[in-house]
Amino acid sequence: MKQRITFIQRVDAGFDPQQAVLTASSLSVRGLDAAREDRITVGLDELPEEFRAVLEQSHELHLRWASERSFDAVPPFSSRVSPGLHVHYTPLESESSSEALCTLLRTVVAPTKDAQYKDCLKQEVFYDYSIPFEGTTWICSACVRSDPETAIQDSFITPPLRSTQFASASLQYYTYLPSIQSLVSRADGPECHTRADALLSADSVDIDYDSVSRALTVSGLWTSPPTGGWTDQFRKPASAADQIEFGLLGADAGLEPEEIKMGGLLAVVGLDEKLKPTMFSFPSRHQSLPEPSTYAVSFASPTGLHPTMSISMPQSSLKRPPAPSDTTCALHTYLTLPSTIFGDQYQLATTDPLFLESHNLVALRALAGEMDLEAPDWVVQRWGSNWLLELSTPRETEDATTTPDPSNWTATIPLHLRYLPPSETGHRTAHIPWPVVFWACTAEDDTNMGVNPFDRTNLGWDSLFHPRTLFYQLQPAGDRLVEEVDVPVLRLEGGDGYFQGKHIELGTCVFISLGFMWVLWRLACVAWSSGVGNKRTKGVHDKKE
């Protein structure tokens, strides 16, 4: 097992050498004001059987969990995903691999009263949706595994591929998960329990596995210290095969726009006699903006069945990122929508300039997932959908002396709620995570992003761009990064009022019966009229004869 503990201090944070003390058998830190990342890498033979069984049947597996609490991402940990659990998965040839992963998800990420959970394996027909985009085709389809007797559709979706040369994980899954308590509770051993419990306060957790390295990596990120700062002790591993790497670093802008410069102290616990000073730089695909740039998400109240998502940003925050002058930058947002809410692909993919300008949109760049416009939520099998939209920005004024506009720039995205199952109260709550908002800038062709020791990929939206694209993240301005939308539904028995299930069912039967009787009466009238008319016609003919 290999551990890497990294503390990232702000430039203005103070540091006393007595706050980090290295001895022959341990390293102690006291009162550190810093962000922290813990990364543990273990082999397959060190994992519980249920995890090992899934990984042995997987080519790639990447889990990304983010807290719904607001936090400030610090470089080099600037990347973001929407709150909840994201699964990116590429199975091996074995047909049982996806079934094993779904069994693990049902066990570890058990549905709770707060979770919007779509089970993995359902019997369903195959749907395929595609829309053209700039001469290519973005495919939006479900994962379907053929079986001699039935076709089983997973609730995973197939992400669109910008280029087959830079393909990412072949399947995606998402569920709203406020806490990873169910995952932490399955840790074995006192030491594992201690480390796992610490993840409950983390802002984000990543789990990565690939069949080439046959190693599992778990990373936890805390962007702010606990009260009083970080105080901890890291002891020398008992086994020579284990290793603990320690780093106390600060981050700053590099010489090149795409670089991050870092300096500080490094040590390997039990091997080094003292902390070693270091300084290095590397290109990073995820960057932070030099000035605070924020955004806020809201829905106009009352939302009704066709809510509109508003993304508001101060115009002073929408300055062009400090990317190289020869690069092209565009502002994007990436929506992760559960099955309870969806967008109209035909409406959002329009090229009508009046519609786009009225919503401050440029174009729909990619989409994947459930696109059925009529299906209620209990019919939908896949977890939901992803949407990548390019947002328009205010025109830059040429007069540098002009006072910046203090008003907000708002982009609006029309969405639609699905019909949800009935409830005793006549209402249900849909949890909608905030989207991520970022600038995407093209980078030099010879920029090597793979040398970043803190690189983070498989976020869902990053695979929709060229692998050398630079991303500048906007920070969400809100205490909770999940919106709760109240959805009116059919009221079950037990509630007050006339709009209950039994009353509507009885009323429907009455009206159908009355309608059926009216149709029979009209048919009888027509038949009687036809019969009388025939008799009169026959009598007239007889008289003439």
Tally of alpha and pi helices = 7
Structural Rg: 29 Å
Number of strands: 31
> Strand order within the widest sheet?
11-6-5-12-13-4-1-15-16-17
What form results from the Cα inertia axes? globular
The description of the largest β-sheet is: 10 strands, mixed
Describe this structure in words.
The chain is built from seven helices and 31 strands. It is an alpha+beta fold and 545 residues long. Strands 11-6-5-12-13-4-1-15-16-17 form a ten-stranded mixed β-sheet, with no helix packed on it. A six-stranded mixed β-sheet has the order 18-29-28-21-24-23, with helices on one face. A four-stranded antiparallel β-sheet has the order 7-10-9-8. Strand 12 (204-210) and strand 13 form a beta hairpin. Helix 1 (49-55) packs antiparallel against helix 2 (96-108). The protein is globular and about 110 Å long. It starts with a strand and ends with a helix.
Produce a short descriptive summary.
The chain has 545 residues and is an alpha+beta fold. Helix content is 16%, strand content 38%.
Question: What key phrases describe this protein's structure?
Answer:
single chain; six-stranded mixed beta sheet; glycoprotein; 545 residues; alpha+beta; membrane; GPI-anchor biosynthesis; Pbn1; globular
